[in-house]
Amino acid sequence: MRIVLVGPPGAGKGTQAAFLAKNLSIPHISTGDLFRANISQGTELGKQAKAYMDAGNLVPDEVTIGMAKDRMSQRDAEKGFLLDGFPRNVSQAEALDETLKAEGMKLDAVLDLEVPEDEVVKRIAGRRVCRKDSSHVFHVTYSPAKQEGVCDACGGELYQRDDDSEETVRKRLEVYHTQTEPIIDYYRNQGLLITISALGKVDEVTKRAMDALSRESA
């Protein structure tokens, strides 16, 4: 299957993408991984992306599209892929359609993970990270530390990253509503959109997604 995964920040896209890709035996292609791989390998697209990023500018659509196109052409993606973080706007969605059409392919489904805005803020703003080891992550509601402000694993101080403040989260949501949310209507008009609730435990959301995709491919 060829799937695009969409949803607001905090919807759990990265987590669900990893599980879904494994269950479907297709590669998980994320924008972040594309950038890191191209930059570390010193590809021409990676050099272009790095120049924009170093200057504090957004990477142009054509560079992102070029990276995605190259990744989708690799052998492990012949039978399908799951795109996470791309397309990010309607122009990227249109470019993806053109790229697939040129290769005689098309998307099978666009999975929209739906989460209420207040829940997004609660999920992200509640995160606390260990200053000693950033892989130790807690949540004030869902997975609190035994002692407030202290990491269970190493005793380090727990803090809220600037990116996780409520103000920053709401700004990120504004960007999502303005730039990315329009692709939901774009794909709905193509009859590709599947919307599921991303509330609940991770495995419950994964099962919900797999059931919806199975019905779509039946």
UniProtKB/TrEMBL annotation:
Q: Which Gene Ontology terms describe the biological processes this protein takes part in?
A: AMP salvage
- Specify which residues bind ATP according to the UniProt entry for this protein: G10, A11, G12, K13, G14, T15, R127, V137, F138, G200
Q: Which reaction does it catalyse?
A: AMP + ATP = 2 ADP
A cellular component term (GO) from this record?
cytoplasm
Q: Where located? A: Cytoplasm
The UniProt record lists the Adenylate kinase active site lid domain at 127-163
Q: What is its EC number?
A: 2.7.4.3
Protein task = Catalyzes the reversible transfer of the terminal phosphate group between ATP and AMP. Plays an important role in cellular energy homeostasis and in adenine nucleotide metabolism.
**NCBIfam families on file:** adk, PRK00279.1-2, PRK00279.1-3, PRK14527.1
Its protein name is Adenylate kinase
Q: What is the lineage of its organism?
A: Bacteria, Bacillati, Actinomycetota, Actinomycetes, Kitasatosporales
